[in-house]
């Protein structure tokens, strides 16, 4: 399959930061295997997931769209 034929997400306006945090936390705490190359605890990884401010992405995206 040619790369141009692959589906692409071009509208990110409906994505909410909280949804990513919830899904990442569920994956972290779930039964799935993931590579933890820095040997961080689940508590530290969860702190990193939830420590990102929600406005960080939307503010940069808004200013990028305004130009």
What is the fold's blueprint, element by element?
Elements: H1 17-29, H2 42-50, H3 55-66
Helix pairs in contact: 1-2
Q: Keywords, please?
A:
single chain; 67 residues; mainly alpha; 51% helix
Mean pLDDT: 77
Structural class: mainly alpha
Instruction: Give the termini distance in whole angstroms.
Output: 34 Å
Note the run of SSEs as H and E: HHH
Question: Quick one: how many beta strands?
Answer: 0
- Fraction in beta strands: under 5%
- Stretches where pLDDT falls below 50 for ≥5 residues? 58-62
Describe this structure in words.
The model is unreliable at 58-62 (pLDDT under 50). The chain has a domain at 17-29 and 40-52. 51% of the residues lie in helices and 0% in strands. It has helices spanning 17-29, 42-50, 55-66. With 67 residues, it is mainly alpha-helical. Helix 1 runs antiparallel to helix 2 (42-50). It contains 3 helices and no strands.
TL;DR of this structure?
The protein has helices spanning 17-29, 42-50, 55-66. It has 67 residues and is mostly helical.
